[in-house]
Amino acid sequence: MKKYDVVVIGSGPGGQVSSRALAAGGRKVAVVEEDLWGGTCPNRGCDPKKVLVAGMEAVDRSNQLDGKGLSPIRSINWPGLMEFKRTFTDPVSSSSKEGLARRGITTVDGSAKFVDSGQIEVNGQAIKADTFIIATGRRPAVLDIEGKEYLKNSADFLEMETLPRKITFIGAGYIAFELACIANAAGSEVTVIHHNARPLKGFDEGLVSAMVLAMRAKGIRFVFDVDIAKVSRQGGSFLLEADNYEDKTDCVVCATGRLPNLETLGLENAGVEYGRRGVEVNGFLQTSNPSIYACGDVVAKKQPGLTPVARFEAKYIAQRLLGGETGSIVYPPVPSIVFGSPKLASVGISTADAGKEPQKYTVKEVDMTRWFNYRRINEPVAKAKLVYGDGLLVGAHILSGTADELVDYLAMVIALKISKQQLSQMVFGFPTIAADLQSLLR
Ligand SMILES: Cc1cc2nc3c(=O)[nH]c(=O)nc-3n(C[C@H](O)[C@H](O)[C@H](O)COP(=O)(O)OP(=O)(O)OC[C@H]3O[C@@H](n4cnc5c(N)ncnc54)[C@H](O)[C@@H]3O)c2cc1C
Ligand SMILES: NC(=O)c1ccc[n+]([C@@H]2O[C@H](COP(=O)([O-])OP(=O)(O)OC[C@H]3O[C@@H](n4cnc5c(N)ncnc54)[C@H](O)[C@@H]3O)[C@@H](O)[C@H]2O)c1
């Protein structure tokens, strides 16, 4: 029977970072993967999505500068863009696996299941380890409605060879907003249906409303307070039905959240507790079995399920197992970005939480739309809401085409507690988004 110091289950960002760090620290490590090596982010998540976002950004920029020396790009050559996307995704699985092997890590293809607290089984083969790390991520949730077999998910969207003439998204979170904007820029007729009237729930309500307004101006249709009950095939298209709604479309993408991958892991055999939201962990990312850790999307936690969070947790576990980390995990401010059109980004204390403690926090709203950096590209909207506590920036919420860049600078200001006085002593390259920090935080 094979025996390792550490076995990592799942080869996504969490599994990659933890296994590589542990192998570099001299541990004998194996990684088990049941699907594509590299996990969600580079195969069917962040990276392919961001390649498609580049096409959307080009369409947006040309539309914004229409009549200002440029002609708009009317639509995207979808098969061409997908071919470009595949140059990123096709090599990922083999290169991720080879990258691990090059570092002396054993790679095992198959589905891992705990037999007891010190042993898993993969394809009938028993593997023992002193420590296990569960990094199995999440998968798309499927609405339990009549006709659910007709529903596509985000992974299907990112593989679509032809762009449907009409596409409908159910759900209004990160995935629906981002993919709706991409499909709209590529020339599809897009509808987003949500079961209540509060899309992108974790983000500032006013900025979300402004984003919805901007997306509506581009032709995206939002339908709120509609709970789809049935999908049926009608020739080449699909009929969506609810008590108060009926519409035909060519493609339905379900984007109603993601579920932790844990049902097939045999967690009961290893004494690992879990719930609907994921594997339960303590402040050291240890499960209820102290020799089994968990990181990334599969963990039940307050932090959002994002790649940098999975990587941060994986690094922490590796440091702890290598003897360098003794305290419980302390997360820095984590930026969240919706790569839509425009982009919505958020970091630190929310405006909703700040509003509950007015004696502690103040919120300053800044409209940047007329600032040079936005006027130069004729941005329709550029707004920020800044949360201050004790004179320092503690939260930032931004809506603009470049919010993804600005939010990382602001995350640094928050994490390092950089004061307005310190910022005013800096010289930035000009004119840049970073240079705006001095005016923004004045
Ligand atoms: C469409 C989309 C867009 C996204 N965009 C962004 C973005 O822009 N920025 C961002 O930060 N995040 C984004 N995310 C989220 C990001 O992809 C995840 O947070 C990240 O991949 C989590 O990493 P992980 O290692 O925890 O899990 P994953 O990357 O999901 O990897 C888990 C791996 O475990 C494997 N596995 C599961 N069960 C078993 C088993 N029993 N045995 C063996 N292997 C198993 C799976 O096959 C998978 O490969 C996006 C997600 C999606 C779906
Ligand atoms: N840019 C990024 O960082 C990025 C992009 C995509 C995904 N992600 C990650 O992936 C996760 C999953 O994304 P997502 O958009 O699927 O989930 P989400 O949690 O962001 O949004 C799901 C939406 O579906 C709605 N919903 C739930 N049940 C429903 C129902 N029965 N009918 C209609 N609507 C329903 C919810 O109210 C919510 O608005 C995100 O939470 C995030 O962690 C991140």
UniProtKB/TrEMBL annotation:
Domain FAD/NAD(P)-binding: 4-314
Details of cofactor binding: Binds 1 FAD per subunit.
GO molecular-function term, one example from the UniProt record: oxidoreductase activity
Chain positions recorded as NAD(+) binding sites: G171, A172, G173, Y174, I175, A176, F177, E178, G257
Record-annotated Pyridine nucleotide-disulphide oxidoreductase dimerisation domain positions: 334-436
Family: Belongs to the class-I pyridine nucleotide-disulfide oxidoreductase family.
Protein name in the entry: NAD(P)/FAD-dependent oxidoreductase
Organism: Christensenella hongkongensis
Lineage of producing organism: Bacteria, Bacillati, Bacillota, Clostridia, Christensenellales
